[in-house]
Design brief:
By secondary structure, the protein is an alpha/beta fold. The protein is built from 25 helices and 16 strands. Helix content is 49%, strand content 9%.
Length: 669
């Protein structure tokens, strides 16, 4: 008799074309299938998500459970109701996401301190102008002081924001005045970054906060500690140390790997490592070392948000987004994948053993079993970066067969909020006035920010692609960060006029006049704070209301997968934005079986909209995401009294038809 347990049933596997719309990814997935190698895509097919936990109906916060509340009237062993359980699970995710991005900001602040005191090898202050602007905003004296003196004081101030216990974190003062008043009204102004994360965990410990609305108030406070705290600090310091991004030319996709060079892929999120890897890779000593090993040199590329960090500042190519980390190794051409923190799959090590690739962890916070660990320290940054590259070069001779897909796209990244302000207003008066005027006149219908991850349970890049393409047709200006930006880069939307044939007439006119791509790459996922800054500056420019919630704008994370995405969504909603998340809803519940399981979803949509002017919704259908995005943008336009976009387009179409008929009657072309 056959033992069924010994032969588990295999779920249906998607074809490469069903798994991804990216031809490079499709090619590598076909190779993986042929070689019998698992990837995140095949593992997602094999493992069905828990249909109870996925919708927030399970509590595992104490040893009396886990408790599954699948029927009306059920409570946990402690008596916790479904709405309390969902709110607790959600705020814990927000706390984890806020901790991850804010800890990144803390590390950047400590690096700034080390640079200011001359203790960081290889680093310098690259943007003194931004240092002075940011310091002055924070009340730090800048006149007749050296950059190092100013940076030292700013670093001390930023470091203090993490342990601060009372008051308000400093970057909150940059938000529109009306927005700050709303936060004060509801008691959600973050007092200190670490304090809000710790309090979120305390409140969700067994036997603590058991009111879902009250829990969600602190979820907002914890999210704001990230968006208007740790993440904003991280972006400030990165710009000061490595330069504020401006447009550069780059490339994206697996085709950036080189057959005749030592390929080193940096993956993770912290720019301190990746920026120094760039410097080391260009050192004559390292280039000579690579040539002595038989290679033509070093080819450095990035995956995930590390890719965005070095792409937008130095034009270093992006090998791909989150779901391409395994696929890069499958090419057989990567000598080393050097990782720091966040979004790094443990599966990389087992996969690398099938090839010659070395997985090198570098952060004191992150080790992966059986990976090589070379700990990075800013005090010896350049020396350590060279040592890592030598490890990769020594591995070059172990390379076997390579299969690099011949797919890559050019792009222009680097649209910081400072550069957008400059390019719109020109050399003499940087201003958001032209953007505001274009929106009010109906040439630009509104603004959409597409951000976030890629998720193997959704066809790779497909939702990013579909939503971006359709919104551009509807004259919606799109700004992007993170893995979403890399998805658009691979579609050709981030290169000058290359994508303008797929753009509505009003937006096309603006793009051609200003000289910008139809999609603006604004950086890594931590740089979503740049989008908040743009929205704030649009408010300050006037004509689009006096707060962020009045602007015709929507935020979307069509393929989200991480807790950071939930923190980002929360602080954007609290800032006044309508945010749409793709995939599943972690607080959806099943209203047909458990009526109270809809309470938390309603609190985060209509409840938050009433309080903050923004709302959070989870939608699985990209067509519905597009419909609601346009509906929201048009409603905001109407509320502002702007020219009706629908009326304007209909008028232009009628004029074009009339002119065409006139030409035909006269025998014209």
């Amino acid at each position: 008799m056959t033992d069924e347990k010994a032969t588990p049933r295999r779920r249906k596997q998607r074809t490469p074309e069903e798994a991804s719309i990216d031809p490079a990814a499709q090619l590598m997935l076909a190779c993986a299938a042929e070689m019998g190698i698992s990837t995140a895509f095949s593992r997602a097919d094999d493992m069905a998500p828990c249909n109870i936990g996925a919708v927030g109906m399970c509590c595992s916060l104490c040893a009396m459970g886990p408790c599954r509340l699948t029927k009306d009237g059920l409570t946990g062993v402690c008596g916790a109701t479904i709405d309390t359980i969902q709110a607790r699970n959600f705020i814990r995710s927000v706390a984890a996401g806020s901790a991850a991005h804010s800890d990144h900001g803390r590390d950047m602040a400590f690096t700034l301190k080390a640079v200011a005191t001359g203790e960081a090898e290889g680093y310098s202050i690259r943007d003194v102008a931004k240092l002075r602007v940011v310091a002055a905003e924070c009340g730090i004296p800048v006149e007749d002081r050296s950059p190092e003196e100013i940076a030292n004081d700013l670093a001390d101030l930023y470091i203090s924001q993490f342990g601060q216990q009372n008051g308000a974190v400093v970057p909150v003062s940059r938000a529109p005045k009306k927005r700050q008043e709303i936060w004060e009204k509801y008691g959600v102004v973050p007092r200190g970054i670490d304090r809000e994360v710790v309090e979120a965990l305390h409140r969700t410990h067994m036997g603590d906060d058991q009111d879902p609305a009250h829990l969600l108030l602190h979820a907002v406070r914890t999210g704001l500690a990230d968006g208007w705290g740790g993440s904003m600090i991280a972006t400030d310091v990165s710009d000061i140390l490595f330069g504020t991004p401006a447009p550069v030319l780059g490339e994206a996709n697996l085709g950036v790997l080189k057959d005749d060079m030592v390929n080193v892929v940096v993956h993770g999120h912290e720019p301190t490592l990746s920026q120094m890897m760039v410097a080391a890779s260009q050192d004559p000593e390292i280039i000579a070392y690579a040539k002595a090993a038989g290679a033509e040199g070093i080819s450095l590329s990035g995956i995930c948000c590390t890719a965005n960090e070095i792409l937008m500042r130095q034009g270093i190519p992006a090998a791909g987004n989150f779901l391409q980390q395994e696929l890069a190794i499958l090419t057989g051409a990567v000598e080393a994948m050097v990782v720091d923190v966040q979004c790094i799959m443990q599966a990389l090590v087992a996969l690398a053993e099938r090839f010659h690739t070395k997985i090198i962890t570098t952060s004191p916070k992150v080790k992966i079993k059986d990976a090589t660990h070379i700990e990075f320290d800013e005090k010896n940054a350049l020396t350590i970066a060279k040592d890592i590259l030598k490890e990769a070069i020594d591995n070059y001779q172990s390379r076997g067969e390579t299969r690099i897909p011949d797919f890559k796209n050019s792009l222009v990244p680097g649209f910081s909020h400072e550069y957008i302000n400059y390019m719109l207003g020109g050399s003499y008066r940087a201003s958001f006035r032209p953007l505001n005027d274009a929106i009010m006149a109906g040439r630009i219908r509104g603004v959409a920010a597409l951000v976030g991850c890629t998720n193997p349970r959704i066809q790779h890049d497909s939702h990013h692609a579909m939503i971006t393409e359709e919104l551009l047709k509807q004259d919606v200006l799109v700004v992007e960060t993170g893995c979403s930006a890399i998805a658009s880069a691979k579609m050709g939307f981030l290169l000058g006029d290359a994508g303008l044939d797929r753009v509505g007439p009003g937006l096309r006119e603006v793009c051609e006049t200003v000289g910008i791509p139809p999609v603006l790459h604004m950086g890594s996922c931590v740089d979503n704070t740049r989008i908040l800054t743009v929205l704030t500056q649009m408010v300050e420019e006037g004509g689009l209301g006096d707060d962020i919630d009045e602007i015709p704008a929507v935020g979307l994370a069509p393929e989200w997968m991480s807790e950071k995405a939930l923190s980002i969504a929360t602080y954007c909603v609290a800032s006044g934005a309508y945010v749409i998340m793709g995939g599943y809803n972690p607080v959806e519940g099943r209203a047909d079986r458990v009526p109270d399981s809809a309470i938390v979803s309603e609190l985060m949509s209509s409840g938050w909209e009433e309080m903050y002017g923004g709302k959070l919704e989870f939608l699985g259908d990209p067509e519905e995401m597009i419909r609601r995005t346009l509906e929201h943008i048009d409603a905001k336009r109407d509320a502002l009294g702007s020219v009706s976009y629908t009326h304007l387009r209909a008028h232009e179409t009628a004029m074009n038809i009339s002119y065409a008929v006139f030409c035909l009657k006269r025998g014209g072309g």
